[in-house]
Amino acid sequence: MACVANGRVSTVTIVLIVLQVAISQERPDIKVNFEVLKPKGLRISIPDSSSSKISLFAFNGHLNRAIGSDDVGSIRGEVTKATNGRWEFEDPNVELKVGDVIHYYFIVTVDRVGYVIDNLTYTVGNLDNRSGGSNPNCQSSVTVIRGSTTPICSGQTIFEDHFDSLKENVWQIEQYIPIDNPEYPFVSYQRLPSDPTVSIVDGNLRIVPKLQQNQPGFTNMSIFTDNLNLFDGCTAPACSKQPSGADILPPVVTGRITTSKSFVFKYGTVHIRAKLPQGDWLYPEIMLEPFLKKYGNTNFASGVLKIAAARGNKELNSGPQDYGNKVLYGGPVMDFDCRNEVLKKNVLTNGRMWGDDYHEYSLRWSPDRIILLVDGVEWARVEPAVSGLAGRLPRSCNHVPRMLLAGGTRIAPFDDSFYITLGVSAGGISEFEDNLTSKNGWPKPWSNGARKAMLNFWKDLDAWYPTWSQSALLVDYVKVVAL
């Protein structure tokens, strides 16, 4: 019954499990400690036990209203490791006053047995001055790092990598077939033993797409006949594929890396200096993806933040409209059918392409708005309407009622934890509209809704593959700064 996201069971889905496990167990005598900070902030903890082994502490609470043991709290945290003898987390955004009442329950796993301790309240009696830790000038930030209890100061760099080496304790190199990706790209993500898709070259991260038929043991006919087996090192459920008729193997092998295992955060400014890939029907994956998928099982349902993207075709048109490498786009994606309603565009008019040079692409993500910048200059922002970010979209967007029912904030679905994703993809059914033409009026070779879309893309290989002379995504650095 539980949903496992990136190897972790979420607080929402763990409730039913622990209820079943602990129903016949005597509840442990554990007291929750509250430290209410001023001007704002709340620190919640339980003591570590020397006589029994605690492996999880999860808290869910509402301010001045009741909460059920199957609700997700507006005040919530999950801790999987004790620090200095306490299981502690801090929410720096809560502003409380004397007399406020927190209605809460918590989940604790003791000696591998889970317990739900519910129907609890805490009344605020006094406020403690925030010391700011060892930095007396620290101004508390709304930025949150998942799993960290250390106070974060505004302007603090909370993540940075200049790619002097490929730090595999930071970045997970993906290996799987993205069959449940709503963009349905015509690729597989692979960690190749030789001639890798992901590498460090001259101090830059390099992610480059290749052809499956050129890999050892494959030929051009392998697309129709050979099984693709990625079980050794697979990082997602789809680890193999056997082609059948028009349902061929993904013709493109590419790379993707994420911080899903090491760095997950909420709110902040992300800076990525990169040179975007060029080549027909390619596009970069430079984005933030949801960690727990709070608003639905797909990434689009729970929101994706595209920091920067530009289609790889140097010439790409639909009538007078330009869709090629001169057009930068980015912003929130909340629903597959409505993705273009909020995505913003920035067109170069100096004769250059976005893939010709390095640029610093930035995204400032706050509880109030999402701002896109390039080379330090703001070029777009998205702000919630009165009814929230969902209120900016047509009623036909099917995610709207789901977010309202889930009790999301005005910035929902971008009010939960996200991780960084970098990669290169090709084709698919969302990045390239139908009826586009590339160089010399050459038509897009597939229709997005067609059963033979990937096959028709591959059959046009002689037209698009020669354009992939600068097909790599090159990244100089990634940096995240607290708000």
UniProtKB/TrEMBL annotation:
CDD domains: GH16_beta_GRP. It comes from the Eukaryota. InterPro entries: Beta-glucanase-like (IPR000757), BGBP_N (IPR031756), BGBP_N_sf (IPR043030), ConA-like_dom_sf (IPR013320), GH16_GRP_C (IPR035806), Glycosyl_Hydrlase_16 (IPR050546). Residues 27-129 form the CBM39 domain. Keywords: Glycoprotein, Immunity, Innate immunity, Signal. PROSITE patterns: CBM39, GH16_2. PANTHER family: GLYCOSYL HYDROLASE-RELATED, GRAM-NEGATIVE BACTERIA-BINDING PROTEIN 1-RELATED. This is Beta-1,3-glucan-binding protein-like. It comes from Galleria mellonella. The lineage of its organism: Eukaryota, Metazoa, Ecdysozoa, Arthropoda, Hexapoda. The gene is LOC113520075.
